[in-house]
Amino acid sequence: MSFLTDAEKQMLSISRMIFHVVGKSLEEPILLEEIEPPQFTDFFLERVKSALKGNLFEFKLHSPTEATLRSIGENENNFSNSTKALARDFQRLHSGGNTSEGVFFVFELMAGQDNTIYALIKYDNEDVVRYILNQNGTEIVPQLERFRETFVRKAEAMQKIALVRLQDDQGGKVIVKDRSKPTHISDYFQSFLEVRRVNSPEKMSSKLVDAFKNTFKKHRTSLPIEIQRSGVSHIYAVLRQNGQQFDAENYEPLISAIFGAVDENSPIRNTLSKNLKDLGIAEESFEIIPESIQKPPRRRLETVEGTQVIYDEEHAPERIPHEDGVRTKIVIVTTEITTDDIDIGKGS
Length: 348
Known about the structure:
By secondary structure, the protein is α+β, with helices and mostly antiparallel strands. The chain is built from 9 helices and 15 strands. It has helices at 6-11, 41-49, 64-74, 79-94, 187-193, 201-219, 225-239, 252-259, 267-278, and strands spanning 13-22, 55-59, 102-110, 116-124, 128-136, 139-147, 158-166, 172-178, 195-197, 245-246, 286-287, 298-302, 308-312, 318-321, 328-331. Strand 7 and strand 8 form a beta hairpin. The longest helix is centred in the middle third of the chain and has 19 residues, at 201-219. The two termini are 44 Å apart. Pfam families: NA37. This is Nucleoid-associated protein.
Protein backbone atom coordinates (compact mmCIF):
# COMPACT_ATOMS: atom_id res chain seq x y z
CA MET A 1 0.00 0.00 0.00
CA SER A 2 1.32 3.46 -0.95
CA PHE A 3 2.28 5.95 1.74
CA LEU A 4 -0.18 8.43 0.17
CA THR A 5 -3.04 7.77 -2.22
CA ASP A 6 -3.09 9.58 -5.55
CA ALA A 7 -5.86 11.86 -4.20
CA GLU A 8 -3.82 12.69 -1.09
CA LYS A 9 -0.79 13.52 -3.21
CA GLN A 10 -2.90 16.02 -5.15
CA MET A 11 -4.13 17.66 -1.93
CA LEU A 12 -0.71 17.85 -0.26
CA SER A 13 0.10 21.34 1.00
CA ILE A 14 2.51 22.96 3.49
CA SER A 15 0.81 24.42 6.57
CA ARG A 16 3.85 25.17 8.77
CA MET A 17 7.60 25.34 8.28
CA ILE A 18 10.77 25.95 10.26
CA PHE A 19 14.47 25.20 9.88
CA HIS A 20 17.56 25.16 12.08
CA VAL A 21 21.23 25.29 11.08
CA VAL A 22 23.23 22.10 11.73
CA GLY A 23 26.69 20.82 10.89
CA LYS A 24 29.86 19.29 12.26
CA SER A 25 31.55 22.70 12.70
CA LEU A 26 28.86 23.76 15.21
CA GLU A 27 28.92 22.77 18.87
CA GLU A 28 25.19 23.38 19.00
CA PRO A 29 22.66 23.90 16.21
CA ILE A 30 21.61 27.47 15.46
CA LEU A 31 17.94 27.44 16.44
CA LEU A 32 15.56 29.66 14.50
CA GLU A 33 11.89 30.60 14.74
CA GLU A 34 8.97 29.44 12.63
CA ILE A 35 8.45 31.05 9.22
CA GLU A 36 4.91 32.44 9.33
CA PRO A 37 3.25 32.12 6.95
CA PRO A 38 5.24 29.46 5.05
CA GLN A 39 7.24 30.87 2.14
CA PHE A 40 8.13 29.47 -1.30
CA THR A 41 5.76 26.58 -0.65
CA ASP A 42 5.69 25.47 -4.30
CA PHE A 43 9.48 25.09 -4.29
CA PHE A 44 9.60 23.08 -1.07
CA LEU A 45 6.52 21.02 -1.88
CA GLU A 46 8.29 19.76 -5.01
CA ARG A 47 11.24 18.70 -2.82
CA VAL A 48 8.91 16.86 -0.44
CA LYS A 49 7.02 15.07 -3.22
CA SER A 50 10.28 13.85 -4.72
CA ALA A 51 10.71 11.67 -1.62
CA LEU A 52 7.46 9.77 -2.07
CA LYS A 53 9.46 7.13 -3.94
CA GLY A 54 11.43 6.14 -0.87
CA ASN A 55 11.88 3.20 1.45
CA LEU A 56 9.12 2.31 3.90
CA PHE A 57 9.94 2.12 7.62
CA GLU A 58 7.95 2.09 10.84
CA PHE A 59 8.68 3.56 14.27
CA LYS A 60 10.12 1.30 16.92
CA LEU A 61 8.39 1.26 20.29
CA HIS A 62 9.20 4.39 22.36
CA SER A 63 10.89 6.28 19.50
CA PRO A 64 11.83 9.77 20.82
CA THR A 65 11.27 11.29 17.37
CA GLU A 66 7.76 9.84 17.21
CA ALA A 67 7.01 11.19 20.71
CA THR A 68 8.26 14.67 19.76
CA LEU A 69 6.13 14.78 16.62
CA ARG A 70 3.09 13.64 18.60
CA SER A 71 3.61 16.57 20.97
CA ILE A 72 3.18 18.92 17.99
CA GLY A 73 -0.13 17.30 17.08
CA GLU A 74 -1.34 17.51 20.68
CA ASN A 75 -0.67 21.24 20.98
CA GLU A 76 0.03 23.53 18.05
CA ASN A 77 2.01 25.85 20.36
CA ASN A 78 4.63 23.08 20.70
CA PHE A 79 5.71 23.36 17.06
CA SER A 80 8.72 25.64 17.52
CA ASN A 81 10.11 24.08 20.71
CA SER A 82 9.53 20.53 19.52
CA THR A 83 11.38 21.12 16.24
CA LYS A 84 14.27 22.64 18.22
CA ALA A 85 14.44 19.46 20.28
CA LEU A 86 14.53 17.43 17.06
CA ALA A 87 17.32 19.64 15.68
CA ARG A 88 19.42 19.18 18.83
CA ASP A 89 19.02 15.41 18.65
CA PHE A 90 19.81 15.39 14.92
CA GLN A 91 22.91 17.55 15.51
CA ARG A 92 24.12 15.27 18.30
CA LEU A 93 23.95 12.18 16.05
CA HIS A 94 25.01 14.06 12.90
CA SER A 95 28.13 15.78 14.26
CA GLY A 96 30.64 12.96 13.70
CA GLY A 97 32.24 11.60 10.58
CA ASN A 98 32.26 13.31 7.19
CA THR A 99 28.97 15.15 7.54
CA SER A 100 28.31 18.41 5.73
CA GLU A 101 26.84 21.65 6.96
CA GLY A 102 23.32 22.62 6.13
CA VAL A 103 19.90 23.06 7.66
CA PHE A 104 17.38 20.79 9.29
CA PHE A 105 13.84 21.50 8.02
CA VAL A 106 10.60 20.46 9.65
CA PHE A 107 7.41 20.84 7.61
CA GLU A 108 3.88 20.17 8.73
CA LEU A 109 1.80 19.23 5.71
CA MET A 110 -1.85 18.50 5.11
CA ALA A 111 -3.05 15.78 2.73
CA GLY A 112 -6.74 16.56 3.06
CA GLN A 113 -8.78 17.44 6.11
CA ASP A 114 -7.41 16.13 9.44
CA ASN A 115 -4.66 14.24 7.63
CA THR A 116 -1.30 15.53 8.88
CA ILE A 117 2.08 14.54 7.44
CA TYR A 118 5.47 15.66 8.77
CA ALA A 119 8.61 16.08 6.68
CA LEU A 120 12.07 16.13 8.27
CA ILE A 121 14.77 17.18 5.80
CA LYS A 122 18.55 17.65 5.99
CA TYR A 123 19.28 20.18 3.24
CA ASP A 124 22.82 21.15 2.28
CA ASN A 125 23.68 24.81 1.77
CA GLU A 126 25.11 25.77 -1.59
CA ASP A 127 28.21 27.97 -1.85
CA VAL A 128 27.44 30.16 -4.87
CA VAL A 129 28.46 33.33 -6.64
CA ARG A 130 25.58 35.46 -7.87
CA TYR A 131 25.85 38.24 -10.40
CA ILE A 132 23.66 41.32 -10.68
CA LEU A 133 23.68 43.48 -13.82
CA ASN A 134 23.77 47.22 -13.18
CA GLN A 135 23.19 49.46 -16.16
CA ASN A 136 25.16 52.72 -16.09
CA GLY A 137 24.32 54.73 -19.17
CA THR A 138 25.18 52.55 -22.14
CA GLU A 139 27.43 50.19 -20.14
CA ILE A 140 26.23 47.15 -18.26
CA VAL A 141 28.50 46.42 -15.28
CA PRO A 142 28.22 43.09 -13.46
CA GLN A 143 28.36 43.00 -9.68
CA LEU A 144 29.35 39.73 -8.03
CA GLU A 145 28.13 38.51 -4.65
CA ARG A 146 29.18 35.33 -2.89
CA PHE A 147 27.04 33.73 -0.23
CA ARG A 148 26.17 30.30 1.21
CA GLU A 149 22.61 30.70 2.43
CA THR A 150 20.88 29.25 -0.61
CA PHE A 151 18.59 26.34 -1.36
CA VAL A 152 18.77 24.82 -4.81
CA ARG A 153 16.65 22.43 -6.83
CA LYS A 154 19.47 19.94 -7.34
CA ALA A 155 18.40 16.55 -6.03
CA GLU A 156 21.71 15.94 -4.27
CA ALA A 157 21.26 19.06 -2.10
CA MET A 158 18.49 17.28 -0.20
CA GLN A 159 20.65 14.75 1.63
CA LYS A 160 18.05 13.06 3.81
CA ILE A 161 14.30 13.22 4.11
CA ALA A 162 11.77 11.37 6.23
CA LEU A 163 8.04 11.69 5.60
CA VAL A 164 6.08 10.69 8.70
CA ARG A 165 2.45 9.61 8.96
CA LEU A 166 1.53 8.92 12.58
CA GLN A 167 -1.04 6.30 13.49
CA ASP A 168 -3.84 7.22 15.90
CA ASP A 169 -2.49 5.77 19.14
CA GLN A 170 1.13 4.79 18.63
CA GLY A 171 3.56 4.04 15.86
CA GLY A 172 3.53 5.33 12.35
CA LYS A 173 4.80 4.82 8.83
CA VAL A 174 7.93 6.62 7.66
CA ILE A 175 9.14 7.04 4.08
CA VAL A 176 12.91 7.57 4.00
CA LYS A 177 15.12 8.79 1.20
CA ASP A 178 18.80 8.87 2.11
CA ARG A 179 21.33 9.98 -0.50
CA SER A 180 24.21 8.36 1.38
CA LYS A 181 22.51 4.95 1.36
CA PRO A 182 19.77 4.84 -1.33
CA THR A 183 18.84 1.18 -0.81
CA HIS A 184 18.40 1.47 2.96
CA ILE A 185 19.23 4.21 5.53
CA SER A 186 22.42 5.51 7.14
CA ASP A 187 23.13 4.36 10.69
CA TYR A 188 22.87 7.76 12.37
CA PHE A 189 19.64 8.69 10.56
CA GLN A 190 18.14 5.37 11.62
CA SER A 191 19.24 6.07 15.22
CA PHE A 192 17.70 9.54 15.06
CA LEU A 193 14.35 8.29 13.78
CA GLU A 194 14.34 5.00 15.74
CA VAL A 195 12.75 3.05 12.88
CA ARG A 196 12.88 -0.41 11.32
CA ARG A 197 12.27 -1.36 7.70
CA VAL A 198 8.78 -2.69 6.96
CA ASN A 199 9.66 -4.80 3.91
CA SER A 200 12.80 -6.93 4.03
CA PRO A 201 15.10 -6.94 0.97
CA GLU A 202 14.65 -10.74 0.87
CA LYS A 203 10.87 -10.52 0.47
CA MET A 204 11.11 -7.62 -1.97
CA SER A 205 13.62 -9.56 -4.08
CA SER A 206 11.16 -12.45 -4.33
CA LYS A 207 8.34 -10.08 -5.26
CA LEU A 208 10.54 -8.48 -7.93
CA VAL A 209 10.88 -11.87 -9.63
CA ASP A 210 7.08 -12.25 -9.62
CA ALA A 211 6.64 -8.77 -11.13
CA PHE A 212 8.97 -9.58 -14.04
CA LYS A 213 7.57 -13.11 -14.55
CA ASN A 214 3.96 -11.85 -14.68
CA THR A 215 5.00 -9.15 -17.14
CA PHE A 216 6.78 -11.70 -19.32
CA LYS A 217 3.76 -14.03 -19.37
CA LYS A 218 1.46 -11.23 -20.52
CA HIS A 219 3.74 -9.90 -23.26
CA ARG A 220 5.68 -12.98 -24.25
CA THR A 221 4.53 -13.04 -27.88
CA SER A 222 5.66 -9.44 -28.44
CA LEU A 223 9.21 -10.10 -27.27
CA PRO A 224 12.15 -11.26 -29.44
CA ILE A 225 12.19 -14.98 -30.24
CA GLU A 226 15.29 -15.69 -28.12
CA ILE A 227 13.59 -14.11 -25.08
CA GLN A 228 10.28 -15.89 -25.77
CA ARG A 229 12.14 -19.21 -25.77
CA SER A 230 13.64 -18.96 -22.27
CA GLY A 231 12.38 -15.72 -20.74
CA VAL A 232 11.67 -17.03 -17.23
CA SER A 233 15.08 -18.69 -16.99
CA HIS A 234 16.64 -15.43 -18.12
CA ILE A 235 14.76 -13.49 -15.40
CA TYR A 236 16.21 -15.79 -12.75
CA ALA A 237 19.69 -15.63 -14.30
CA VAL A 238 19.71 -11.81 -14.30
CA LEU A 239 18.22 -11.25 -10.85
CA ARG A 240 20.38 -13.89 -9.18
CA GLN A 241 23.59 -12.08 -10.15
CA ASN A 242 25.50 -10.65 -7.20
CA GLY A 243 25.58 -6.91 -6.59
CA GLN A 244 22.24 -6.10 -8.21
CA GLN A 245 20.00 -3.29 -6.97
CA PHE A 246 16.44 -2.23 -7.67
CA ASP A 247 16.19 1.55 -7.96
CA ALA A 248 12.59 2.76 -7.83
CA GLU A 249 13.53 5.88 -9.81
CA ASN A 250 15.51 4.06 -12.50
CA TYR A 251 15.09 0.35 -13.14
CA GLU A 252 15.83 0.74 -16.85
CA PRO A 253 19.02 -1.38 -16.57
CA LEU A 254 16.97 -4.34 -15.30
CA ILE A 255 14.35 -3.92 -18.05
CA SER A 256 17.08 -3.92 -20.72
CA ALA A 257 18.91 -6.87 -19.18
CA ILE A 258 15.75 -9.00 -19.00
CA PHE A 259 13.62 -7.95 -21.98
CA GLY A 260 16.21 -6.37 -24.27
CA ALA A 261 15.63 -2.98 -25.87
CA VAL A 262 12.06 -1.94 -24.98
CA ASP A 263 10.39 1.00 -26.72
CA GLU A 264 9.66 3.98 -24.50
CA ASN A 265 5.92 3.66 -25.14
CA SER A 266 5.80 -0.14 -24.92
CA PRO A 267 2.89 -1.58 -22.88
CA ILE A 268 5.50 -3.79 -21.20
CA ARG A 269 6.54 -0.79 -19.12
CA ASN A 270 2.99 -0.07 -17.97
CA THR A 271 2.40 -3.71 -17.06
CA LEU A 272 5.63 -3.92 -15.11
CA SER A 273 4.86 -0.68 -13.25
CA LYS A 274 1.40 -1.98 -12.33
CA ASN A 275 2.81 -5.31 -11.16
CA LEU A 276 5.43 -3.56 -8.99
CA LYS A 277 2.72 -1.34 -7.50
CA ASP A 278 0.35 -4.28 -6.87
CA LEU A 279 3.14 -6.11 -5.06
CA GLY A 280 3.95 -3.05 -2.94
CA ILE A 281 7.52 -2.45 -4.10
CA ALA A 282 7.09 0.25 -6.78
CA GLU A 283 8.40 3.03 -4.52
CA GLU A 284 11.20 1.16 -2.74
CA SER A 285 14.90 0.81 -3.55
CA PHE A 286 16.75 -2.22 -2.25
CA GLU A 287 19.64 -4.62 -2.63
CA ILE A 288 18.52 -7.71 -4.55
CA ILE A 289 19.35 -10.78 -2.45
CA PRO A 290 20.21 -13.70 -4.80
CA GLU A 291 19.81 -16.28 -2.02
CA SER A 292 16.15 -15.31 -1.62
CA ILE A 293 15.43 -15.94 -5.31
CA GLN A 294 14.98 -19.68 -5.45
CA LYS A 295 15.14 -20.93 -9.01
CA PRO A 296 12.48 -23.63 -9.64
CA PRO A 297 14.13 -27.02 -10.25
CA ARG A 298 11.78 -28.04 -13.07
CA ARG A 299 12.16 -26.87 -16.68
CA ARG A 300 9.93 -27.38 -19.70
CA LEU A 301 11.13 -27.87 -23.26
CA GLU A 302 8.55 -27.61 -26.07
CA THR A 303 9.01 -28.01 -29.82
CA VAL A 304 7.00 -26.61 -32.73
CA GLU A 305 5.70 -30.15 -33.34
CA GLY A 306 4.06 -30.15 -29.90
CA THR A 307 6.54 -32.37 -28.08
CA GLN A 308 7.04 -31.40 -24.44
CA VAL A 309 9.77 -32.53 -22.10
CA ILE A 310 9.64 -31.71 -18.40
CA TYR A 311 12.98 -32.15 -16.64
CA ASP A 312 15.29 -30.86 -13.94
CA GLU A 313 18.81 -29.57 -14.50
CA GLU A 314 20.40 -32.84 -13.43
CA HIS A 315 18.55 -34.80 -16.13
CA ALA A 316 18.53 -32.30 -18.99
CA PRO A 317 18.07 -33.93 -22.42
CA GLU A 318 20.98 -33.84 -24.83
CA ARG A 319 20.60 -31.62 -27.90
CA ILE A 320 22.42 -32.70 -31.03
CA PRO A 321 22.42 -30.81 -34.36
CA HIS A 322 20.65 -32.85 -37.09
CA GLU A 323 22.47 -33.86 -40.25
CA ASP A 324 20.37 -31.43 -42.30
CA GLY A 325 21.91 -28.53 -40.40
CA VAL A 326 18.46 -27.11 -39.55
CA ARG A 327 16.75 -29.42 -37.11
CA THR A 328 17.84 -30.54 -33.64
CA LYS A 329 17.81 -34.03 -32.14
CA ILE A 330 16.69 -34.29 -28.51
CA VAL A 331 18.09 -37.35 -26.78
CA ILE A 332 16.69 -38.56 -23.45
CA VAL A 333 18.58 -41.24 -21.57
CA THR A 334 16.51 -43.00 -18.89
CA THR A 335 16.67 -46.09 -16.68
CA GLU A 336 12.94 -46.72 -17.16
CA ILE A 337 9.90 -45.31 -18.99
CA THR A 338 7.12 -44.97 -16.42
CA THR A 339 4.31 -43.59 -18.64
CA ASP A 340 3.50 -44.02 -22.33
CA ASP A 341 -0.23 -43.33 -22.64
CA ILE A 342 -2.86 -40.97 -24.06
CA ASP A 343 -2.65 -37.53 -22.47
CA ILE A 344 -5.85 -36.87 -20.52
CA GLY A 345 -4.67 -33.57 -19.10
CA LYS A 346 -6.61 -31.54 -21.69
CA GLY A 347 -9.96 -33.31 -21.57
CA SER A 348 -9.04 -36.23 -23.85
